[in-house]
Amino acid sequence: MSTKLILTTGIYDLIKDHLRRKKVTKSQEVILTEGLRNAKQVLRRDLPKDIVSVNNILRVKDVSTNDEIEVKLVAPDKAKFKKDKYSILSNLGLATVGKAVGETVEWPTATEIKTYQILATLPID
After folding, report:
1. Is 92 helix (H, G, I), strand (E, B) or coil?
2. pLDDT digits (tens, 9 = 90+) for 66-100
3. Which residues contact 22 (CB under 8 A, 6 or more apart)?
4. To the nearest whole number, what is the mean pLDDT of the chain?
């Protein structure tokens, strides 16, 4: 079982709105609803540096393939897949946001359950 999510109020509200608009699968909705129910909300300045959030460079390992992936997690309107800028509301963003470096997370996609180990998160300059 993973630890409690730590989210800024803005990210909390963004995910809550995403859920309200039914933009996720049923299994994702269950995971996110439970995560939000138990989440700790903090101010941006109080967010620990090892917690995945928006405007971070995220490095994860896909456990099934052992491939390492590095992307920039950005606001939905800034996402550019070809530049490795993923929306915080993408599958990878939702799977990891609010989690700490070192955690392993499982995330159901439309076709499979992905397992990621969070290796690093750094602020985008």
Report:
1. helix
2. 999 999 999 999 999 889 999 999 999 999 999 99
3. 29
4. 94
For the cut 80, the answer to whether the pLDDT of residue 123 exceeds it is yes
Residue with tokens 């530049």: 83
Contact call for residues 8 and 43 (beta carbons, < 8 A): yes
DSSP 109: -
Strand 104-108: give its sheet, edge to edge. Answer: 85-87, 67-74, 56-62, 113-123, 104-108
User: Please, what are the domains in the chain?
Assistant: 6-123 (3.10.50.30)
State how far the Cα of 123 lies from the Cα of 111, in Å rounded to an integer.
31
**Report field, pTM of the whole predicted structure over 0.85:** yes
Tokens in use for 46? 């109080």
Cα–Cα distance measured from residue 18 to residue 62, given in angstroms and rounded to the nearest whole number: 25
pLDDT above 50 for 1: no
Coil, helix or strand for 29? helix
Give the CA count within 13 Å in the CB-facing half-sphere of 2.
Answer: 26
